Amino acid sequence: MSDALETFRAETRAWLEANCPAEMREPVKSDSDVCWGGRKFRFKSEAQKLWLERMAAKGWTVPEWPREYGGGGLSKDEAKVLAQEMRRISARPPLSSFGIWMLGPALLKYGSHEQKLAHIPGIARGEIRWCQGYSEPGAGSDLASLRTSAVLDGDEYIVNGQKVWTSYADRADWIFCLVRTDPDKPKHLGISFLLFDMASPGVSTSPIKLISGYSPFCQTFFDDVRVPAANLVGERGKGWDIAKYLLTHEREMIGGMDMGSTGRDGMSAMAKKALGEDGLKAEPLLRADIVRHEMDAWAFGLTMERVKDEAKAGQGVGALSSMLKYYGTELNKNRQQLLMSIKGSDGLLWEGEERGDGDLAKSWLRSRANSIEGGTSEVQLNIIAKRVLELPGA
Amino acid sequence: MSDALETFRAETRAWLEANCPAEMREPVKSDSDVCWGGRKFRFKSEAQKLWLERMAAKGWTVPEWPREYGGGGLSKDEAKVLAQEMRRISARPPLSSFGIWMLGPALLKYGSHEQKLAHIPGIARGEIRWCQGYSEPGAGSDLASLRTSAVLDGDEYIVNGQKVWTSYADRADWIFCLVRTDPDKPKHLGISFLLFDMASPGVSTSPIKLISGYSPFCQTFFDDVRVPAANLVGERGKGWDIAKYLLTHEREMIGGMDMGSTGRDGMSAMAKKALGEDGLKAEPLLRADIVRHEMDAWAFGLTMERVKDEAKAGQGVGALSSMLKYYGTELNKNRQQLLMSIKGSDGLLWEGEERGDGDLAKSWLRSRANSIEGGTSEVQLNIIAKRVLELPGA
Amino acid sequence: MALVLNDEQAMIREAAEGFFADHAPVAELRRLRDAKDATGFDRGLWAKMAEMGFAGVAVPEAYGGAGLGWVAAGLIQEAIGKNLSLSPFLATSVLSAAVLVKGGSEEQKAALLPKLATGELLLALASDERARHAPSHVETRAEPSGNGFRLTGKKAHVLDGHVADRLIVAARTGGEVADKAGITLFLVDPKAAGVRVERRSMVDSRNSASVVLEGVQVDGADVIGEVGGGYALLTAALDAGRACLAAEMLGVSHTSFAMTVDYLKQREQFGVKIGSFQALQHRAAHLFCEVELARSVSLRALQALDDGDVRAPVFVSLAKAKVGEVAKLATNEAVQMHGGIGMTDDFDIGFFMKRARAANETFGDSAFHGDRLARLMNY
Amino acid sequence: MALVLNDEQAMIREAAEGFFADHAPVAELRRLRDAKDATGFDRGLWAKMAEMGFAGVAVPEAYGGAGLGWVAAGLIQEAIGKNLSLSPFLATSVLSAAVLVKGGSEEQKAALLPKLATGELLLALASDERARHAPSHVETRAEPSGNGFRLTGKKAHVLDGHVADRLIVAARTGGEVADKAGITLFLVDPKAAGVRVERRSMVDSRNSASVVLEGVQVDGADVIGEVGGGYALLTAALDAGRACLAAEMLGVSHTSFAMTVDYLKQREQFGVKIGSFQALQHRAAHLFCEVELARSVSLRALQALDDGDVRAPVFVSLAKAKVGEVAKLATNEAVQMHGGIGMTDDFDIGFFMKRARAANETFGDSAFHGDRLARLMNY
Fold it and tell me: Does the first or last residue of chain A, that is N or C, have fewer Cβ atoms within 10 Å of its Cβ?
């Protein structure tokens, strides 16, 4: 390791020691511990606010983004050191957001200098919370059939239509949105990528209640919403490219979700806790199901590891995000089902007096969406058949 | 039960007692004990020959077929009594053949009086052995794309082409064959059903060796074979209807194959024999696989039973032959795999000194064809989707 | 015995299907859930079920019941499954009726069964103590006291326990925990001193309660069957419950599958009906076969109970395990093929998935019953 | 340790793939089978494998080997799987080399390993006695006699036993049948009095023999490792064999899958390429994922052996079980998607299915290794 990097490590360690509040060195216990930022966000504690401000000031909420847009400007190696040092003291991420995971990377790749200047610093400082406007009612996996229209009127677009499955649209400040700017062009031609303020006149949202009891998604309505033409990212009619880029991103995030805890002895340990040390011996068929699952989960975990190692070694096979999304989500659904079996009637609890009652059932129900959102399992299999296997007519 | 039926039972019992040779009251041990009939058939024993002749004389090789064509002319109830009385003394079937199972029923339904007179008595007496000429090289499940041509020349058709998967074509006397009589009509229009002598000039066969080591099938070549026009069954160009009728028949036969021994405790009993009384306790995952299989097999067996009972009660759902074929053959493949697992390295034997060595491996390999022949599993699923579920575009 | 319904049974099926579709469709479950109804079912519906003869379907005519047996009870429960109707049918008319008919004294039968059949009396079976079903695992103690016993222990997952007028409690009068011998069944008044019943809010909006017994005094006359010989009686009642749960899951599978096939025919994507995608066609066709298999094993199990077939436990475990797997597959496929809309609470399919899961876990899932089946067949 | 090949390993893979594709493709297996070759492999090929350094790949350089370890051995065996090449590699270069390198005395190593590496000496491991793999089930007795032991017993499924110049025999010097303690490994000359080796004709045309020992006299110097402590040594050798079999099954899966995808692109039915049927596309796509998973676990198991990782047995069982299932699926799907032609002996795909089955059964199938994995993880 280079001297410069060692110096950086020492400085970083000292800075974190001095600036990370003690309260922010505890593991995240529930969603309410996460800092999502945005105009409507209410900090849970002074420490949470302070930690965000201090990190944002250094650009370390987004360590590898350019300094001129509010990022940290760190090299890959420096960012790795920062991550290691944060892990060393169990420091929480100062900020989580769709802006960081999704829009930021897309803007850095496709946005103009002005757009980057206008929007990226707000993401980096946690001032603006973004949501994603892709799906529309009745479209499902067929994203390219979207109908929300954006008609140019002078130097503004007038947007009309409806989006669905917009995550936390009711808490977001701005939306990045796929709209149809050229109604005459077929399917995914004629689609553009537009940014606008959720506070604009004509925007309204309505939460969707899910079978899990949660409402993380909304329906979002646009009624003659006026958006400056300058808010169109990339070329007009080329929004599909940006969407595809982001979908691949999303797929990787969902595929990897929860997978950390899937492999190894996670489930058998839980079964022992629930059924007693020898409980599984009395339930040979359940034990068999657990073994089969653990083997698949472990094999999948090793495959995630191998894919990363190969990418590092420049040997990547490419187009694996569909595989990870498909297999990872199917595995997680299976895992949640097995956990429900292990817990028996306790798993059926919906609400109760103790903290955590009902969590298992809700997370089981939540998992059923894994293979639907971010491109269904069927769509991922189509993609593998077409792009990887190059099967005809796929 | 009516008096007439009781009288019939007494007479039948007496006749069987007097006429069924002792040797023919032993269970069939191998294929060589089966009487297939035909010009080339060599009887294994005098008793086998005598038994066929005596039964054929009464028309009881095909008890329910009309007497005028050499059948027994029995009613459904009488035929049932005959079957019961034969089972009582463990009498072997006097004759097995594709003529009985396949062609006979088709001729009775679609043939002219002359055709029935010409061909059915030979089937009933075991004089003529038939084979089936359906599949063609490269066509597989796509039967309707067949290319064997039959061109009318005066009062004869001239047949040219090639068939594949013709069961025992090298031992058959006659063939029932799908040919294209109208080359201009699309697909399954323009196909006719033709009968001809395998000894005709221009017919040749070549056995196909299978991965199981057996050669039950042939390739069959037709080179300017001249066939009397009178041998065309049903209307010209309507052969497809007859073929469909026969395919349903075949499907039911294959689906039901081996299923008698699948349900109940067949497999677990075998496992105990192979691994010792407590052997499965030491192999909990194998035991789990066996339980899961036995449950499916049992459920399938009960479904076969229910389908029969419902048919009797006039409640049949119809179109279930595809279900039985699909599920039954998939189950049998799974069964053969599990039997191989139970037997471990002993199951891998190909040839050996002891009688039965290699049988298991061969029957495992044989089972893999179950889901290909008589309409693949994929074709059965297509049929269910289309005819039962009425899904669009199926 | 032929695997078909006889005429009487066919009539009951028709009556039950019409009744629940008319009076207790899925919308009714949604209404009760959203209203956070304290009872968890509609007493008016239950009264109508009693009038129809459903409440006492398995009670002999001598005690005011319909005397129609378990196939009939299963057909009613299948219709319940198709409509996700809420009622105390399983707890009262199946589980408790089975215990009393088979094991009750003449006095107990005469006192309780006629009221059960008229719908006046609700009962519940308090047997399970562990979250994963293990029927012989009984820690609840019954210690001799006065002319009776004092009961102490905890019961989990007591179906309809919170509305029951009388509980049937399994407690240990002898033997060690998990022994089959030494278990005794008792009638317990939930209003008696020392009984605490708490309703638990369940994923499927059904009624389940936990019951705590703290030195509850019962009479000698409250013992059902032989002291120490309750396990056989409990098993018989559980088997009736399991067979009826299998029938219910068959109903759940049937409706989920039907909804899915309908959706495949209506919904368009990429410019065509999604039912024209071959991958979905094959999965739907496979599911069709599985539902047919579920129908066969469910009917056989119910028939075996009516016939007093010695193999009844084997058929019951086969049915509970196999239909449970089919219901899981049918509801999973239903949600997946419905896509996003299937995940929303506004749409009904989620209710079916929740019920399939809960019915699976109740009285042993497919792993439990697969293992039981293997043991019954000596391997 | 990164889950990628290092440069040296990448070179070995390339060399092995080229070598077996050129010198021992499937046609060569067919030729040997049809000729009913008495040896069951080509000694010329084996000599070339020795020249390439393959025979002694896992033998330390000090004893004339290449000293490249188990990842390298696995890559060779993967190439063998891709081409179904016949050779005594598994028996001699993996199983026997593992026993000798780990447990042999200096004299034994010096005498045997150099000849093993040059291909002059063939060895075979005679351990299994039951048809279903159960490595501690050793009934063969070794009784003290003279300055050594007398061996009596029967061994089944001895890979390449009929051509071995020397057998490594597991026999019991103490303990009860199925005890892990009390097993000892011996070097036995198959030409010694009382040894009877019989080749068995196998479904995959590989070489397997049964070995009968009737009071066979061996020397004290023929003991490998500690008397009574052979089980650990045997397990280590079996684990090397299992990891290499997993690698071979990965090769089998790879080629079967590649052949299937090619066929889907060529074959027409109903007027279109069958690869355009979505149901087949989805099955192929799923299989693609499974083969990728198989690749990961296979590599990790081999690496763990090279690293002396204490978790190596866990990774080996994971690999043997998972890759075995994948190979079964890949070959089953291959035959099914090829349709009728896949069932004919003229077409190669049947050979792959046969080999997948035999490799699965050898040294424990996925049920055996799933159970072993659970035990190793204490459940």
Answer: N
Q: Name the minimum distance, in Å, from the CA of A291 to any CA of chain C.
A: 13
Residue A280 sits at the chain D interface (C-beta within 8 Å): yes
- Proportion of chain C in helix, strand, coil states, percent, rounded to 5: 55, 15, 30
Which residues of chain C does CATH 2.40.110.10 include?
Answer: 124-229
CB A173 within 8 A of CB A198: yes
Distance CA A323, CA A248 (A): 11
Q: What is the CATH number of the domain that holds A271?
A: 1.20.140.10
Question: At which residue do the structure tokens 């009288």 appear?
Answer: B7
Across the interface, do D340 and B361 touch by the CB < 8 Å criterion? no
A212 occurs within a structural domain: yes
- Kindly state whether residue A15 falls inside one of the protein's structural domains: yes
Q: D232-376: which CATH number, 2.40.50.100, 3.30.460.40, 3.20.20.70, 1.20.140.10? A: 1.20.140.10
* Contact assignment for C377 to B389 by CB distance below 8 Å: no
Between positions 130 and 149 of B, the ones with CB within 8 A of C are: none
B285 touches chain A (CB under 8 A): yes
Alpha helices (H) along B232-388 = 239-256, 266-275, 284-312, 321-343, 359-367, 377-383
Q: Are B79 and B61 in contact (CB under 8 A)?
A: no
Are A27 and A65 spatial neighbours (Cβ–Cβ below 8 Å)?
Answer: no
A270 touches chain D (CB under 8 A): no
Residue listed under structure tokens 């698949």: A296
Task: Kindly give, in sequence order, each residue whose CB lies less than 8 Å from that of residue A376, ignoring residues fewer than 6 positions away.
Answer: A140, A141, C336, C339
Same domain (yes/no): A59, A163: no
Residues of chain D with CATH 1.10.540.10: 7-122
The secondary structure of residue B135, as a DSSP letter, is -
| Contact criterion met (CB below 8 Å) for C136 and C180 | yes
B155 and B183 housed in the same domain = yes
Closest CA of chain A from D93, distance in Å = 27
CATH entry, C124-229, from 3.90.226.10, 2.40.110.10, 2.170.130.10, 2.60.40.10: 2.40.110.10
Residue pLDDT tens, chain B, 394 long: 578 999 999 999 999 999 999 999 987 777 778 899 999 999 989 999 999 999 999 999 999 999 999 999 999 889 989 998 998 998 999 999 889 988 999 999 999 999 999 999 999 999 999 999 988 987 777 777 889 999 999 999 999 999 998 989 999 999 999 999 998 887 788 999 999 999 999 999 999 999 998 888 999 999 999 999 999 999 999 999 998 888 777 776 655 444 433 344 478 888 888 888 788 888 999 999 999 999 999 999 999 999 888 887 877 665 688 999 999 999 999 999 999 999 999 999 998 777 778 889 999 999 999 899 888 999 999 999 999 999 998 5
Alpha carbon D268 to chain centroid distance? 38
DSSP letter (8 states) at residue B210: B
Q: Where are the beta strands (DSSP E) in chain D?
A: 123-126, 141-145, 148-159, 166-172, 183-188, 195-202, 207-219, 223-224, 268-269, 272-273
Residues spanned by the domain of A319: 256-388
Residue B158 sits in a domain whose CATH number is 2.40.110.10
Number of domains in chain A: 3
> In terms of Cα–Cα distance, which of C203, C239, C199 is closest to C363?
C239
Nearest chain B Cα distance for residue A347, angstroms: 24
State whether residue C368 is helix, strand or coil.
helix
Residues 50-79 of C with CB under 8 A from B: none
**Residue numbers in D near A382 (CB within 8 A):** 278, 281-282, 285
Q: What is the largest CA-CA distance in chain A?
A: 74
Interface of A with C in 337-356 (CB under 8 A): 337, 340-352
